[in-house]
Amino acid sequence: GRVRLVGVRDSALDVEEVLEALGDDAAGGLVVFVGRVRDHDSGKGVEGLEYSAHPSAEEKLAEVCRRVAVDHDVHGVAAVHRVGELSVGDLAVVVATTSAHRGTSFEATRTLIDTLKAEVPIWKHQRFTDGTEEWVGSP
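Structure (tokenized):
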């Protein structure tokens, strides 16, 4: 099928794994989005964070990938998201699509990351350098 790689993992993510999963000689466009832990949010310094996931998160992520594959003329879709403790600079999410042309892949990859963030039950607990903390995306 067109969904080539889906994962919710507690180990470091590897962009190369995503690229390999989407290898396709017919694909002229390959668009990858990499989300990293940044050192600030809402004007505060970020010390680190932890991602938690509902047990259904990987299946929901697969469902989102299937929808993107159906709604866009893509050859392949891949998405992996990290859970657990992350430090500034760590990769939190890698999503990508391939298609015959770049425009389709840009649109599909944007839809993939935006839908993942809106629908997949993964929550971020940020710890700030001023000692405060915040949950993002929790129910």
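The beta strands are 3-9, 29-36, 40-41, 44-53, 74-82, 84-86, 91-99, 122-128, 133-136. The chain has three helices and nine strands.
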